[in-house]
Amino acid sequence: MATYKPVVVQSFPKLGERITQDTVYWRGYKTPVQIKEFGAVNKIDFSPVPPYNYAVTASSRIHIYGRYSQEPVKTFSRFKDAAYCATYRDDGNLLVAGSEEGSIRLFDISGRAPLRQFDGHTKAVHVVGFLSDKYRIFSGGDDYSSNLWDIPSATEIVSYSEHTDYVRCGCASKVNADVFITGSYDHTVKLFDARTKSSVMTIDHGQPVESVLLFPSGGLLVSAGGRYVKVWDVLKGGQLLVSLKNHHKTVTCLCLNSSGQRLLSGSLDRHVKIYSTTSYKVVHSFNYATSILSLALSPEDETIVVGMTNGVLNVKHRKPEERKEKSQSKRQPAYRTYVKGRTYMPKQEDFCVSKPVKRVLRKYDKLLKSFQSSKALDAVLEPPIRLYTPEVTVAVMQELHRRGTLRSALAGRDEKQINLLLTFVARRVIEPRFTPVLVTVADMITDIYQPVVGQSAIVDRQFLKLQEAIGKEIDYQEELLEVLGMMDTLFATFTKKRATYLEENKSNGLTETIETNTNN
């Protein structure tokens, strides 16, 4: 009796992932370090000066972390309730933060007690920041107001009450020391000039604004709210340049890399998307465990820090390039080490011992070997095989058809098994590599279970889905044939014109030759 031959699963070429320079660059980070905070992380801000420590605002505390430390090097906890939006000044010496009770506190990095306290908001202050002259602070609160404060005298300079809902985000211009921007839940972004008594520009984002970002040049503004990230041209009066909709849930934070060539956005859908600022296409993406509230990139792009709703701080450091060079320079074993002994030929007096190779059969092969067709089909319809290696399922169906037992394997199934079979066939029948086999399977299922159509709503629904899938594929093929016919006509016309042109050139050449000979 001949030995059993396992089912041959046809291998198909896999579509390789497109590796770009951005893919290589953004994958060049180490395994992330997880740090647990006391509450949801609402703001992360890097110091603009070395050693690039970063401030993390969570719950009623502000923690200062060293770039490689997992424990805070300093803590500011002089808040009765939640703290918000701790932001560094450009020189890295001062830190300002808002609070739930409506006051703004200014801290010296070398001390612990606040240097100044600014009172004027009647509700929580969610956004604060320094103007580029370093002597004034802007703020926005849940009392719908946007205020400007003088640091030396700790007094309010001007207050704007133009928003009609909570002010939750803002940024200052690095080019003009009098310009700052705020975004509100009233769907608007307003640009203020400290020299005027009202806003100089209003932009309608269309969704509650969660984050705003101004490019270093001051000409482009990015706003995030809802599922949209929108880029506006400030110099053209707030003209919309592009609207990006790459997230599935609300976008909560924005960030630029050090060169300004990449824009990062974090969302409640647990993803960080990275866009090119020239084409505004997604060049890379990071996936995280839970929803993202805050995001920051260190000044030299060495560290990415992400804050999440569950209070976890995710820190990724770039792999040092020196170690890569050392690992590449490590000496590898010579080629002869790997092939040593492979070409040895036994001599006449040698006694050769062959080690028997034990062939391990898979579950479906064992069932096919014992002629259990129905159980073999059940084995390849299990989720791990059916979902991730459908070529194995189709190969077993093809083997059963070759043996002539496919019909009996498909027959005698209950409602749940028929639903599973039809779902698989309807999903995979449109794939060219599986179509020849699955069309036969679909034909057999229809013949076998036609008498029971109408007895089960679930099975009827799957038959309708199969019919719809095949109908769409036929329409698609007909459209392709029409396009192919058009292309054939165009190619035939082009070939005809080219042949006529060549004939004319040849005839002209012969005429010129004859005329030249006659003249001679």
UniProtKB/TrEMBL annotation:
Residues in coiled coil: none
PROSITE patterns, per database record: WD_REPEATS_1, WD_REPEATS_2, WD_REPEATS_REGION
Protein name listed in UniProt: U3 small nucleolar RNA-associated protein 15 homolog
Pfam families: UTP15_C, WD40
Biological process according to GO: positive regulation of transcription by RNA polymerase I; rRNA processing
Superkingdom classification of source: Eukaryota
Function statement: Ribosome biogenesis factor. Involved in nucleolar processing of pre-18S ribosomal RNA. Required for optimal pre-ribosomal RNA transcription by RNA polymerase I. Part of the small subunit (SSU) processome, first precursor of the small eukaryotic ribosomal subunit. During the assembly of the SSU processome in the nucleolus, many ribosome biogenesis factors, an RNA chaperone and ribosomal proteins associate with the nascent pre-rRNA and work in concert to generate RNA folding, modifications, rearrangements and cleavage as well as targeted degradation of pre-ribosomal RNA by the RNA exosome.
InterPro entries: U3_snoRNA-assocProt_15_C, WD40/YVTN_repeat-like_dom_sf, WD40_repeat_CS, WD40_repeat_dom_sf, WD40_rpt
Domain U3 small nucleolar RNA-associated protein 15 C-terminal residue range list: 344-490
Keywords annotated in UniProt: Nucleus, Repeat, rRNA processing, WD repeat
WD repeat start-end pairs: 118-159, 244-285
Subcellular location(s) of the protein: Nucleus, Nucleolus
